[in-house]
Amino acid sequence: EKGTYPHYMLKEMDEQPAVVRRITQKYEDACGELTIDATVMNAIKAADRLYIIAAGTSYHASLIGKQYFEKIAGIPVEVHISSEFGYNMPLLSKNPLFIFISQSGETADSRQVLVKIKELGYKALTITNVQGSTLSREAHYTLLLHAGPEIAVASTKAYIAQVTVLAIVAYAVAGTQDIDLKKELGIAANAIQTIIDHKEDFQKVVEDFLATTRNAFFIGRGMDYFVSMEGALKLKEISYIQAEGFAGGELKHGTIALIEDGTPVIALVTQKEVSLNIRGNVKEVVARGAYPCIISMEGMEEAGDTVVIPQVHPLLTPLASVVPTQLISYYAALYRGCDVDKPRNLAKSVTVE
Ligand code: M6R
User: Fold this and answer.
1) Any idea which residues are catalytic in this one (predicted)?
2) CA–CA dist 100, 260 (Å, integer)
3) 236 Cβ partners below 8 Å, 6+ apart?
4) Alpha-carbon gap, residue 269 to 293, rounded angstroms
């Protein structure tokens, strides 16, 4: 039930801090340590490479998950769009494990891959929000997102849950002491809360940057690039503004030709090692007339940034940086009079190939 909320999407964005905290509790062992089921853990450890299969927002969360497995646990990962993988299978490693990331657990494109890889004799883990869903029942192992039902077509809290669970899985498999993940997830939950508490600020951002525009670009580097793609998908999906997410350094290889006077460019600046590079990319587009909306993280902010979000652990920046992009999409859809929860031409789960 959406209660007093005008839209499910707003309610679901509001729930995000609680979702991160709930997941942390669900994945705690008796001693309060973050861990996962031993069978799943062993299956991951036995693999020489993980193949993550997903679509849409779940694909974008998977790109972050790859960073976690590679950087925290040292396991190589490939991430594939399910509708492509099924018909154009890459050369597989000797001992692959397939991980299906799906909010609904019903995405037909992903199921088709699951059927195929099972025929080939490979094992599958599904990470889903829906217990008993098709992808969960048909996979060998399941981990749950514990995000609670997501009703709005635009996925918000499920993305937050996917990123959180993927961090926990990589951390548990690594058995590392290098990072106090529980504490850092708590800090990330607080950061999300702070952004949500100031959500009305994004109405002004929308009025300034997106009121009449035909198109908008999101740029970022490192993990901000992946969040840029997610921000662009959300904006397209519910406000029908043509939007794309780009790697900051890639613009000058073609896309910069699209920049005109007043073109909104939303830049994410949360990755310390490339913050000067992305600032440089912003200068490049500004020199061509772009109107930059800069979303930076405390510690990397500069005077004139549009929004400064609280600092979180470098690995967890997507949990914080995605939230402004969700709120921008929400208010852009509202401003333009779109049906926020049920955008045209879309269904909550895509059960056809
Ligand atoms: O249920 P799934 O996670 O498998 O769904 C995948 C996509 O269809 C989904 O994430 C879609 O892109 C969302 N509507 C985006 O907000």
Assistant:
1) 348 (for fru-6p isomerization activity)
2) 40
3) 242, 243
4) 11
27 alpha carbon to ligand 1 midpoint, in Å?
A: 24
Query: Does ligand 1 lie within 6 Å of residue 13's CB atom?
Result: no
How far is the CA of 100 from the CAs of 226, 299, 330, in angstroms?
A: 18, 36, 28
Q: What is the mean pLDDT of residues 5-16?
A: 97
Tens of pLDDT, residue by residue over 182-199, are 999 999 999 999 999 999
CA-CA distance, 229 to 254, in Å (whole number)? Answer: 17
First to last CA, the chain: 30
Residues in the chain, total: 353
Beta sheet of 291-297, edge-to-edge order: 242-247, 215-220, 264-269, 291-297, 307-309
Rounded Cα distance, 23 and 185, in Å: 10
Q: How far apart are CA 174 and CA 225, in angstroms?
A: 25
Task: Look up the pTM and report it.
Answer: 0.97
List beta partners, residue 193.
none
Q: Could you tell me where the beta strands, DSSP code E, fall in 77-236? A: 77-81, 96-102, 123-128, 141-144, 215-220
The question of whether 348 is a catalytic residue gets the answer: yes
What are 43-70's pLDDT values in tens digits? 999 999 999 999 999 999 999 999 999 9
Atom 7 of ligand 1, nearest CA residue: 56
Ligand 1: which of 7, 53, 103 to mutate, judged by most atoms within 8 Å of the beta carbon?
103
Question: What is the spatial distance between Cα 242 and Cα 105, in angstroms, rounded to a whole number?
Answer: 28
Q: Find the 143 Cα to ligand 1 centroid distance in Å.
A: 18
Confidence of residue 353 (pLDDT cuts 50, 70, 90): confident
What span, in angstroms and rounded, lies between the C-alpha atoms of 123 and 100?
Answer: 11
Bridge partners, residue 292, by sequence: 265
Dihedral through CA 206, CA 209, CA 211, CA 215, nearest 10?
A: -120
pLDDT digits (tens, 9 = 90+) for 251-296: 999 999 999 999 999 999 999 999 999 999 999 999 999 999 999 9
